[in-house]
Structure formats: structure tokens, C-alpha cells
Amino acid sequence: MVSDALVAPPRCRLCNAPLTQTFVDLGMSPPCEDFLTADRLDVMERFYPLHVRICSECLLVQLPDYVDPSDVFVEYAYFSSFSDSWVAHAKRYADQMIDKLGLDSDSLVVEVASNDGYLLQHFVAADIPVLGVEPAANIAEVAVGKGIRTETRFLSEESGTEIAARYGRANLVAANNVYAHVPELIDFTKGLRALVADDGWVTIEVQHLLRLIERNQYDTIYHEHFQYYTVLTISRALEAGGLTLVDVEELPTHGGSIRAFARPSEVAGEPSAAVTRLLAEEAAAGLDTVEGHSGFARNVARIRNDVLDFLITAAREGKSVVGYGAPGKGNTLLNHCGVRADLLAYTVDRNPYKHGRFLPGTHIPVYGPELIEQTRPDYVFVLPWNLRTEIAEQLSYVKDWGGQLVFPIPHLEIV
Description:
Layout: E1 21-29, E2 48-54, E3 61-62, H1 69-73, H2 84-101, E4 109-112, H3 120-125, E5 130-133, H4 137-145, E6 150-151, H5 157-167, E7 170-176, H6 185-195, E8 196-207, H7 209-214, E9 227-228, H8 231-240, E10 243-251, E11 257-264, H9 273-284, H10 296-316, E12 321-324, H11 328-337, E13 347-348, E14 366-367, H12 370-375, E15 379-382, H13 388-394, E16 404-407, E17 413-414
Parallel strand pairs: 4-5, 4-7, 5-6, 7-8, 12-13, 12-15, 13-14, 15-16
Antiparallel strand pairs: 1-2, 2-3, 3-9, 8-11, 10-11, 16-17
Helix pairs in contact: 5-6
């Protein structure tokens, strides 16, 4: 046995301090987007720790990079356009930024992690030049098919500099739901700085750690998410790459997110009142100290127990339970709870890429949404709880046979 004293702790990817403090430990789990084909069901799967640390120096909450991003994002299973509400959110953002920045046909908008063009298509419709930077070749191909020029590569300071030399520097660089996905945090931030014009803007959307804690959203912890930000820590990360946080907007997406507005540090000026207000709210919650992050693990254990109690009780009573959705967060929840197909017969998803495949770790099969109406289950266990309103509308027909919806987060609720 190797003594713990002989194992060097991982180091903070922002300030390089040793990571000796635990935020929450969810045990071992497979990569959340590694959906299995039938011929892989009897083959050993990769499981990695989900042991999240907090840096005692800079307070960045982070997951050590157990998984290489190239193993996750080169062939990716998540297509943003399958969520109607997310596409609508992107349209509102595009309209807001066009109006705020006065973007026109002489401007350039770059999105990093541009996925299938769900956002940039709205700028194209307004005759504004765009460029996507997307490392997943299968998804980039879909964007290109929509007429959105796309560079298939990871962003770094080097690649950002090369891209800017080819296309020019952008008036607006958008990085929506990617800033948590980069283990090379400082290099990525320098890449954003390389892409943006000296008088330009960078916007970053990311889940807010304050809301994650308040609302028990532990299933959003998975290997693709390397960082979990407060306004305090995102400002520190931006500074490390030559950008300064100047404004912040709270969003309802993903259970509670922030949209950070940053500019090159040379032109940034003073932060807005919204930045000051949210920093004060985080401090009041204790998130300006290591100690203020404690207690989350107890809430996680309660949710796991409630989920298992519901599923086991339903099985004992002969009730049928199926899932709706196959998001990454669902795989964290199901693996942490030890749920298998005996408790959740199947799940469905609108993304045809996932049909006929099986959830990683749990081996629960994934089908098209029409199967729910065919099998008429007693309960539908909703895994993408962050899309509650949209999904409740999609599943309104379940009440026709007396079925009920179950939402596990922020607490188990049957409706």
C-alpha cells in the first residue's frame, strides 16, 4: 500500500498551489458522454474519480484533469440545437449583443466551442460575419453544413493567435458553456485575448457555483467540467489571461448561470455595480473562504438517498419508471446513486445519435421519445431538470394515463 504522505496532491491550475482541500467526492464514474454501443457492453469501461477540490489560496473549485479533453471533445455526443429553449436563449443573446455593441456587416463575431451553429446562425441571419472554433469534428461538420465557417481545433494562445492572423480580431468573442471545460485555463484565457480586438468584448456563460450549492446541483459535476466558478474566481482567471471582468448578468440557464462580460485589461475600466453586488452576495454565503464551501457533501448524500428510496419503493409496488433525457448530468446522478436498468427501465432522448446506445456505467438503454407513449409508464424520471418547463410541455400527454413526472434536483419532487 502506498502511503498518502507519499502521493503528491494535484496542483491548482490557476495559481499552482497544492490542492489539499475537498469540496465533494462523488467516487468513481465513467466519462459522462461516453455512450456505449451494444458491442461494448461486455468490455471493461473506464472509470475515473469525481473528487472535486478547492484551492486554499485562490478558492477555485476544480476537478483534477483525470480525463484528457481530446478523449472527450474530438467526437462529441451533445448537439445544442436539440434543445428548443437553448436555441431561443442563443437568439436572445445575439439580439442583445447586436444592439449593445452595434454589430453590423463590418464586424466579426467568434464563438469558441461553437457546437452545431446553434448561436452563430442568429448572427448570420443578421448579415454579421462569424467564425466558429469547435474541436469536435462531427459537430463542426453540422455547423459547416449550415453555412457557418468553422475552425476545427482547440483554443489556446497559439491557435488563437493563428486564427486571428487569418480572419482578423473579433469585435465579440463568445464562450458559452466552455470555460468550465478547459484544464489549460490560463492558456485558454490567453487564447480568448488573442482572438478579441483591443477594444472588443468577451462574454462567457458558465454555471454559477453559488447557485449550484444553493440548489444542490451536484449532478453538474462530471469529468468535462474542470472548474466551478464564482464571480470572484472567474475574475481571477480572466486577469491571468489579460482580460478584466467589467460586468456580470445572472441567467436562469443550467439551474443558475452567470454571463461575464470581459474586456482587454488595458481598456476595461471599473467593474459594474452588478459585479460588486454579486461579490458581496458570495461573501455573505461564505464563498470568499475555504470554510464557507463546506456542508455540500451532506446535501449530496440526502439527494442520493431520496432518489434510491423513490426508485426502490416504486419497484416494490410494481410501478414502472423510465427516464427522459440522456444528458451528462444524468449519468453523474445515476452512477453516483448506483441505479441500473432494474430500477430505471430505459431513457429516451431527442438526439438520434444516442438512440440504440446505452448510458455509460449504468448500461440503461436509450431510445427515441415515442417509446414513452407506447409503454405508458407510471413515472417519468426527468434527468435534464434544468429544462423543466420545456420538458413538462413535451411530456404533457403523460397525464392521459395517470403518469407522473419526477424531478430529482434541487430535491426529489413528483408532479
